[in-house]
Each structure stands twice: as structure tokens, then as C-alpha cells.
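Dear colleagues,

As part of the handover before I leave the project, I'm documenting each prediction I ran so the next person doesn't have to rerun anything. This entry is a single chain, and its sequence is reproduced below.
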Amino acid sequence: MRAVISIGSNTGASRQHLASVLHEFEAELAACSSLYATPPWGVEDQPDFLNAVLIVDTDSSPRELLARGQALEARAERVRLRRWGPRTLDVDIVDIEGFSSTDPVLTVPHPYAHQRGFVLIPWHEIAPDAVLGGRSISALIDALPAADRAAITPIDKVIA
């Protein structure tokens, strides 16, 4: 199955944490976006993030994929002190081809992805024809406020 995964970090060794995700999915990696500097979303009084999007072709089930992401977050010593707060590593399943779920533990497509430029813009870089929730990624990006789009800056083609 093909899955879209968003990764981000704004504390600790951010590049190293993001690289750990690439290493985990290396054999399944179909595409990886550039690394982007992005302002925080939801809680603004925190450092900016480094974000990227991966597309993987995996034999893992959606639950196994979730468990892999959560294990990576645990290895990065992620602590959840507040919703949308600072984090060493965030691994989100954005979309899984042919799968949807409203389970609160694994909601797919991700319920906020359509609002998050730090997901949409890197995803568009590697899959410009992608669709989320019946809308093109391009249309979803166009619907974002111009200031939000402008604040998401590609900084490096290489994460590690």
C-alpha cells in the first residue's frame, strides 16, 4: 500500500530525528520532499519546525505503520506536554491509498492535513497531482492564506 507520512521536529537534534524516519522507511521509500522551515501550527509560542513529507510503498498494515511511527517518536524521547506543542519528532500518517478510518487512534486521512501548508507544500513537491479528500493538493494549497504559504520555506534537498 502507498502511504503519505508527514514528519516534523522543532526541539533537540531535529535533523537527526527526521533522518531516523528516513532510515526506518529507507527500503520502502518512493519519494521524499525537501526539508522545509515552517512556523508552528496551533501553538505559536515555540520554535519553528523542520518538516518533510515521505511517500512509502509498504507491506505494513495501517496499524503497523502507526506503531512504527510511534516507536520512532518514543526513541526520539518525544514528550506530549500539550497539544500541538514542541516536539523532538512528530510522525503523522496523512493518507493511505485505499484506506480510510475515523478511529480516534488512527484517523485517515489526517483530519487537519487539508489546513496544514507544512504538509501540503512538501507533498505537492513530490506528488503534484495528489488528491486529499477529493480535492487536489494544488487547490488545497491555493485555499491557504497567502502569508501561511509564504512562511513555508524549502531549506535543503537533503534531510540528513
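The chain is about 30% helix and 30% strand. The mean pLDDT is 91.

All the best with the project,
I.
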